[in-house]
Write a structure and sequence with these properties.
Blueprint lengths: L1 E2 L4 E2 L17 E4 L6 H11 L4 E4 L9 E7 L2 E6 L1 E2 L18 E2 L5 H16 L4 H14 L15
Parallel strand pairs: 3-4, 4-8
Antiparallel strand pairs: 1-2, 1-7, 5-6
């Protein structure tokens, strides 16, 4: 992050070692209203190839601003810093984060669910498990879902 007033650039890193790292797929849902910090997370996940962004292109706000009072009840927000991603060498200012799976925000959860099921179907062996996954995928693609069945712990 380059800070114009001080002329300094700060680097932000994750921890070098992690005791245990989940290897489950990550899906990040976005909309045109996703902005700033939500975009930073989405952009980083996508740039590092650690997940799939599903939904709409985000709002496009990557550069931090400072607020200045110009007097006579006029206040302006002026960018005073610039974010640069280490992988892409750029940011999402004015362009937003473009999703890997582009769908209207209202359909993002369903599209992510279907994408997950497609991956599971493609890796499942032939048999009952694969058939069940295909059945559920067909339902999800139609926008249908089964009602969950809840049982008390002692009733199992």
């Amino acid at each position: 992050m380059y800070d114009r007033p001080t002329g300094l650039t700060r680097q932000f890193w994750t921890v070098k070692t992690v005791a245990q790292r989940d290897d489950k797929p990550v899906y990040v849902l976005t909309s045109a209203r996703t902005f700033s910090g939500g975009e930073d997370f989405s952009y980083g996940i996508q740039a590092q190839k650690r997940g799939t962004v599903v939904g709409e292109t985000t709002g496009g706000g990557s550069n931090p601003v400072s607020w200045y009072n110009l007097g006579q009840d006029i206040i302006v927000a002026i960018p005073t810093a610039r974010t640069t991603n280490v992988v892409t060498k750029t940011n999402w200012e004015h362009v937003g984060v473009k999703p890997d799976i582009a769908v209207p925000a209202a359909q993002a959860l369903q599209a992510a669910h279907a994408a997950i099921l497609r991956n599971l179907v493609s890796s499942a062996k032939e048999g009952k498990e694969r058939q069940e996954l295909q059945r559920v995928l067909a339902m999800v693609e139609k926008g249908e879902s089964e009602q969950p069945v809840y049982t008390l712990r002692g009733e199992r």
